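Cross-posted from the bioinformatics board.
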Amino acid sequence: MAHTTDTHMFDSHLTIIEGAIADALAKAHLPPELAEPIAYTLDGGGKRLRPLLTVLAAEACGASPHRAAPLAAAIEILHNFTLVHDDIMDRSPLRRGKPTVYVRWDESTAILAGDTMMGIAYRLLSEHYDAETCRQLVAEFSAAFIEICIGQAEDIAFRYRPSVAMSDYTEMIARKTARLFATATASGAIVAGASDRTSQALRRFGHGLGMAFQIQDDVLDLFGEPQFGKQRGQDLREGKKTFIVLSLADRCSSARALLERYMHGEPIASDADIERIATLCRQCGVLEEAQTTIDSYLDDAIAAIRRELPPSPARDLLVAAAEKNRTRTL
Amino acid sequence: MAHTTDTHMFDSHLTIIEGAIADALAKAHLPPELAEPIAYTLDGGGKRLRPLLTVLAAEACGASPHRAAPLAAAIEILHNFTLVHDDIMDRSPLRRGKPTVYVRWDESTAILAGDTMMGIAYRLLSEHYDAETCRQLVAEFSAAFIEICIGQAEDIAFRYRPSVAMSDYTEMIARKTARLFATATASGAIVAGASDRTSQALRRFGHGLGMAFQIQDDVLDLFGEPQFGKQRGQDLREGKKTFIVLSLADRCSSARALLERYMHGEPIASDADIERIATLCRQCGVLEEAQTTIDSYLDDAIAAIRRELPPSPARDLLVAAAEKNRTRTL
C-alpha cells in the first residue's frame, strides 16, 4: 500500500520535472544542430534522481513541487551537461545503452551542446525566482559547478598518481558526485525559504546520499549486473582509482603485486585480471567495507533530516530514496 | 595630449580589471591541473577590449570603475572560456602566438578548464552585486551565452551549407561575436543602475562595435599583417563562410568557379588560391564593401551613445574604442 502511494507520488513529481525540462528547452529556440543532441541527452533514460531530491527537499520544507520545478530542471540539465563533457574526457562510447553524444555526433557538437545546457540551466534560475532567491541559487550552483570540475580533474589526475589514499578518494567523490546531490537538496530548501539550519540539514542529507551513491557505483562496476552493454570492470579498464581498488590495496597483501602497475596508471586489460580482482575483493572483505561505509553515510544522511524536519510524506520519500541506495543494483 | 590622457585612463582601468581577474582566480582555490591552463589562457596577451567596454559603459552611466570591475572580469573570463572551447572545435593550434590549451595540455584539460571558467564567471555575479542586479546580470549572461553557442553552431554548420546568404552571416556573427560586445556594454549600464533606455543605447553601441570588429577580423584574416605565426587566409583554409567569401561570391562572377567547391564545404588548400582570392577581392570591390559596412555599424554605434549619454571622458573613450576598429590592423 505504502509502496503504491510512493510510486504514485514520484510519478506526479516526475511529470512536473519533465514539463519544466521541456519548457526550458523549447524556450531556448535552438537550431537542430544543438536541439537534437540536447534532447537526446535529456531523454536518454536518466532516473531523474537529483531533480526528484530537489522537489522532495522543497516539499519537505513546505514549498509546492511547482515552485521547485524550474530549479529541479536546472539541476537535471546541469547534471546532464557534466555527463556529456565527462563522456568526451573518459572516451566513454555508451551511456544508458546508447552511443554518447560525441560518438553519435562529434566532439564539437558534444562540447557545444554541453555549454548550451549550462546557459539554459542558469537562465532558469534568473527567470523563475525572485532576485534574492536567484542570487542564492546562482551562488550555490557556481560554487558546486567549480567543485564538480575540480573533482573531475582530480579523478583524471589520480589515474597517474600512485599514492592516492582513501581520504583523497573521499574528497574527490565529495566534489565530483556528492556535491551535486548536496546542491540538489540544499537548493530545494532555498526555494522553500527554509532557515539556514534546515538548508544545512538537507545539504548534509544530499552529501551523504551522494557519497553512498558513488561508492555503490564503484561496487556495481565490478559486482553489479552489467547493464546496457556496459562492460564489467569498466572503471578498472579506464585505470580509475575507485573505492574497490583503494580498499583492496589497503586490506589485501596478496593483491599488491596485481595492483602495483595499476596504481602507477596502467589500466587492467584482461578479463582474467578483472576476475582475479573480484575474487580478492570477496576474500579480503572489500565488499563488507564498502557496505559499512555506505551504511554509515546513509545513516548520517537520514538522521540529519529526521532530526531537523517535521515528519511529512516528502520527508518519508527522501528517506526511502536514501534507503534504496543501501542495496542498489542499478 | 588627448592621446596621452586616453592611454593613461585605459591603463588605470586595465589595472583594475587585471586585479579583479586575479582575485576571482585566487578565490576559486583550483588545483594546478586547472589553475595552470586557466592562468595561461587569461594571461595570454588578450587586449581586454570587452571588459574595458564594460568598465567604460558603467562609468559613462555614472558608476565607478571599481563597481564594474568584478562584472568586467566575468565578461573577460566568459570570453576566454569561449576561446578555449572554440579552439578545440576549430582545431586551432595557435592563439596569440602560443599553443592553444588543448594542444599544450590535452582536450580533457581544455574542456574542463573552460567549464570551470564559466563557474567562476557566474560566481562573480552572485558575490559582488545586490540581488536584483545579480538577477539581471545572470539573465543577460545566460541569454548571451546561449546565443553565442548558437552562433558557433551556425558558424560550423555553414561550412557545409552551400547556400549561405550574407543575411545568414550577419545573423551568425551577431550571435557569435557581437552579442558578447552588446552584453559587455549593456551589463555595464546595468551595474550603474542606468535606465532601460540608456542600457539599450549601450547595447546598440556594443552590437555595432562587435559587428564591425568581426567583419574587420574577416578582412584581416586575408589582408592583415600575419601575426603571431598565424597563417594568412586561415579562415579560408578552415572552410569558413566569412564576409570576404560571401561578398566575393555575390559581386564577382569570375570568382564563381574558384568558389564553387568551397561553398560546398571544401576548404581552400593552396597558397596560390589564397592569393587568387585576395586579388579578386581587390578587383571586385570586396574591401570597399567591407569598409562601408564597418563604417555603417560604427556610425550607428557611436550615434546611439552620443544621442543618449551626456558627454564625459568615458563616453569619449567608448567612441575612441569604436573609431579604432574602423582601421584596425591587429
